[in-house]
DNA sequence: ACCTGAACACCGTTCAAGT
DNA sequence: ACCTGAACACCGTTCAAGT
């Protein structure tokens, strides 16, 4: 007689996602996830291969959500503001996806590629098709570095961080526009 | 009768530093460090408070070395190339210092501030004193994001990464120059 | 004064035994 | 077919006992 299912993969990923924001990557333990979904740790292995795979699933869920939001942006400033807002909303997930350490499980290539289409579209509009890739990389590298530093509290020399963000957007858009 | 010292704090930090590059942050275990310096794990606690403090010491050693190299740069391109070369030489240490995750031990504030003086000096020369801080943040955010993405293999859409780097420097320097 | 084995509280993961 | 306790190999850290 089969036991009824006491949890689902979606519930497990959601619990891991919440634990990630609350306690950081190291806080995402199989025991912690198990408690949240109401089973014992060994039961999780019926639905997910291991902890690395679970982290990868959280990374992919994060990128899919981010991609959906970026795709809705019509211009560079909106796109970059959306990106930054996502980082502030889910700082740990942002770091997991954008600046994973060595050994950190990483999202599938296709999921990652999809996240680039919005910035490529907008960069092509500003810089032209020839320089679209380089312009997209300039904008992406800047925004990713800026948001990472902001989340890490790395802007330590005073000044207005919002002003630095606006300064960056204005000068970058100007620089890449033909 | 006292036992002769079998290791030193410097040797412990150096072993941790090497393990970091070889096996990543998770690979820096007290047991692993102990084996490298020729003692048992409990003995390490005579010289360093705990693992977090050891990681912090590695972060500070990394920043001091990086600061020394950046201070020697005379112009923006040299500074940025030096920064990128350091990232490629010590990728795990670069990530530890520039994009630490939540809960990762972080260098002392004074050590971090010292690493900013070179970029501030050069930014002031290009953008003027009024915009020096914003310009420094633009350059730093871009370079940090670019190098992080490069180390993570995040440039996945083909194209020439060196060309994207040169494109970035040229357009940024142009953008912030009065 | 430094070093060590033993111990404790955690991890991730496996597996036989339950329902 | 799913769930669990028990077990194993790891961690970081403490501490009494050795020299």
Task: Put the structure in a nutshell.
Two copies of one chain form a homodimer. The first copy, chain A, is mainly α and 178 residues long.
Write the layout of secondary structure elements.
2 copies of one chain form a homodimer.
Chain A: H1 9-23, H2 30-37, H3 41-44, H4 51-71, H5 76-89, H6 91-98, H7 109-114, H8 117-127, H9 132-151, H10 161-176
Chain A binds a DNA duplex (19 and 19 nucleotides) through residues 1-6, 29-31, 39-43, 45-46, 50-51.
Question: What does the model show?
Answer:
Two copies of one chain form a homodimer. By secondary structure, chain A is mainly alpha-helical. Chain A has two domains: 1-48, Arc Repressor Mutant, subunit A (Orthogonal Bundle); 57-177, Tetracycline Repressor, domain 2 (Orthogonal Bundle), CATH 1.10.357. Helices cover 69% and strands 0% of the residues of chain A. Chain A has helices spanning 9-23, 30-37, 41-44, 51-71, 76-89, 91-98, 109-114, 117-127, 132-151, 161-176. In chain A, helix 5 (76-89) packs parallel to helix 9, helix 8 (117-127) packs across helix 9 (132-151) and helix 9 runs antiparallel to helix 10. The longest helix of chain A is centred in the middle third of the chain and has 21 residues, at 51-71. The N and C termini of chain A lie far apart (70 Å). Chains A and B meet through helix 6, helix 7, helix 9 and helix 10 of A and helix 6, helix 7, helix 9 and helix 10 of B.
């Amino acid at each position: 007689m089969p036991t009824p299912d006491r949890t689902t993969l979606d519930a497990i990923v959601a619990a891991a996602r919440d634990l990630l924001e609350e306690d950081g990557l190291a806080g995402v333990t199989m025991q912690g996830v198990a408690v949240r979904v109401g089973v014992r740790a060994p039961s999780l292995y019926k639905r997910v291969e291991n902890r690395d795979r679970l982290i990868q699933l959280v990374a992919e869920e994060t990128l899919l959500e981010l991609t959906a939001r970026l795709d809705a942006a019509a211009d560079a400033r909106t796109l970059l503001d959306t990106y930054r807002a996502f980082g502030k909303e889910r700082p740990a997930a942002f770091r997991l996806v954008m600046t994973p350490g060595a050994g950190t499980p990483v999202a599938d290539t296709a999921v990652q590629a999809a996240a680039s289409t919005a910035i490529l579209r907008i960069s092509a509009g500003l810089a032209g098709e020839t320089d679209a890739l380089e312009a997209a990389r300039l904008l992406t590298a800047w925004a990713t570095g800026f948001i990472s530093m902001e989340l890490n509290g790395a802007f330590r020399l005073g000044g207005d961080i919002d002003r630095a963000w606006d300064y960056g957007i204005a000068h970058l858009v100007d620089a890449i526009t033909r």
